[in-house]
From TrEMBL:
This is Glutamyl-tRNA reductase. The lineage of its organism: Bacteria, Pseudomonadati, Bacteroidota, Cytophagia, Cytophagales. Homodimer. Residues 174-304 form the Quinate/shikimate 5-dehydrogenase/glutamyl-tRNA reductase domain. It comes from the Bacteria. During catalysis, the active site Cys acts as a nucleophile attacking the alpha-carbonyl group of tRNA-bound glutamate with the formation of a thioester intermediate between enzyme and glutamate, and the concomitant release of tRNA(Glu). The thioester intermediate is finally reduced by direct hydride transfer from NADPH, to form the product GSA. It catalyses: (S)-4-amino-5-oxopentanoate + tRNA(Glu) + NADP(+) = L-glutamyl-tRNA(Glu) + NADPH + H(+). It comes from Hymenobacter elongatus. Catalyzes the NADPH-dependent reduction of glutamyl-tRNA(Glu) to glutamate 1-semialdehyde (GSA).
Length: 423
């Protein structure tokens, strides 16, 4: 394993929502931080991951760079210093622990809702930004490709990714099913509280819905959420018109009495089915709306029951997921160790090739072209046979975790210190 690999992490487990919001990074900020850390601080294998529940920086460096990274983050977010944010971050300097953390994050094991699959797409996006900034070294490339392959195995071999385990995501899936027959469904989201924000983020991230509108009593909250998620905004005074135009209305409004009633809907003729999803407690959509022809209502309990069943299946699959992660990490460890001895193998090949070429020059002058060609083939074949056993022994030593002594012996025997370092 690359023993220089580390991570500094802020997550929902330690930081309240207000702090997470304060330190959340959009795409331009992530890209800017990548450049600062890789070009100005000289860090390698840099990955900046920022979601609604976490802000993390993975990197490779000889020493812990937690303070320097936090300083740059505070400057980027226009904070006076790091004193107020540092207690919420965890710095993991052990390579195995840092790698294991990234696997757990990308699989959804560390998500607020276990098995949340949105994080996998966010990790892929973060990796793309890192690669485009030339901040990803060979180790990070290999690590992320291993992570993505592991996620594919988890999806194919376990039930960990099945169903929607959060009410917000279950709502998205329900609306997708209800509107499958519509080419461009119109969705109205009511409410911009914590629950409404989760729902809006899921709809904003979905490629299925291009016409999603958010409506909230406080217009400023709706505007901020719409900007974040790429949604439209409807003024609360125009709610009745918005309901009339929507195919689906999802409400998470906190209200003492229902906001949507049969009386509100009655004046508007429902020419086809109109779907209402009530996520509020107490209910913000009166049950009597179903007396209006064409109206179908889905209450919170029905969606919550579906989400709870999915969560139970995911939790049951966690041991399988961890076993797959362990296999992937073992494979990554083997690759990392082989990479450590790769320069020695290449130097040995170069040393033997130089000897071969020197001897070819000595004897080929006295040979015909046909004889020289034959000698070239013979010596190449002989060199490969000589190399085979040392290479196999080096790889075997890597798997045992003890390549050091063999590397030293080969270096001394063949004077490999004099060989140039392979590019």
């Amino acid at each position: 394993m690359n023993q220089r690999f580390k991570v500094i992490s802020l997550t929902h487990r330690k930081a309240p929502l207000a702090i997470r919001e304060q330190l959340a990074l959009d795409e331009p900020a992530c890209r800017q931080l990548l450049l600062i850390l890789s070009q100005e601080l000289g860090l390698t294998d840099v990955l900046v991951l920022s979601t609604c529940n976490r802000t993390e920086v993975y990197y490779s460096a000889p020493q812990d760079q937690c303070d320097a990274i936090l300083s740059e983050l505070a400057h980027l977010k226009s904070l006076p210093d790091t004193a107020q944010i540092a207690p919420y971050f965890t710095s993991t300097t052990g390579a195995n622990a840092a790698v294991g953390h990234l696997f757990e994050v990308a699989m959804g094991l560390d998500a607020q809702v276990v098995g949340d699959q949105q994080i996998s797409h966010q990790v892929k996006q973060a990796y793309q930004w890192s690669a485009e900034a030339d901040a990803a070294g060979p180790f990070l490339h290999r690590l992320l490709h291993t992570v993505f392959f592991t996620h594919k195995r988890v999806r194919q071999e376990t039930g960990f990714c099945d169903g929607a385990a959060s009410v917000a995501y279950a709502t998205l899936q329900l609306v997708e099913d209800l509107t499958a027959h519509l080419a461009s469904p119109r969705v109205l989201l009511m409410g911009a509280g914590p629950f409404g924000m989760d729902v809006a983020r899921h709809f904003g991230a979905s490629r299925r819905f291009a016409h999603v509108t958010i409506c909230n009593r406080t217009r400023a909250k709706a505007d901020a959420l719409a900007t974040e998620c790429g949604l439209r905004v409807l003024d609360f005074a125009d709610l009745a018109q918005g309901i009339q135009e929507a195919d689906v209305v999802v409400s998470s409004v906190a209200a003492a009495a229902p906001v949507i009633t049969a009386q509100l809907l009655a004046p508007a003729a429902v020419l086809s089915h109109k779907y209402f999803v009530d996520l509020s407690v107490p209910r913000s959509i009166a049950p009597d709306v179903e007396t209006v022809p064409g109206v179908l209502l889905y209450p919170l309990d029905a969606i919550r029951s579906k989400a709870s069943a999915a969560l139970e299946r995911r939790l049951a699959a966690v041991p399988q997921v961890r076993a797959i992660i362990a296999e992937s990490m073992a494979g990554l460890q083997d690759w990392s160790e082989e990479m450590e001895v790769s320069p020695t193998i290449q130097k040995l090949k170069n040393a033997l090739e130089q000897l071969r070429q020197d001897e070819m020059k000595r004897f080929s002058k006295k040979m015909s072209p046909a004889e020289a060609s034959l000698l070239d083939k013979i010596t190449r074949s002989l060199m490969q046979k000589v190399l085979r056993q040392p290479v196999l022994q080096l790889k075997a030593a890597c798997k045992r975790g003890e390549p050091g002594q063999l590397v030293e012996s080969l270096t001394a025997l063949f004077d490999l210190e004099r060989q140039p370092v392979p590019a």
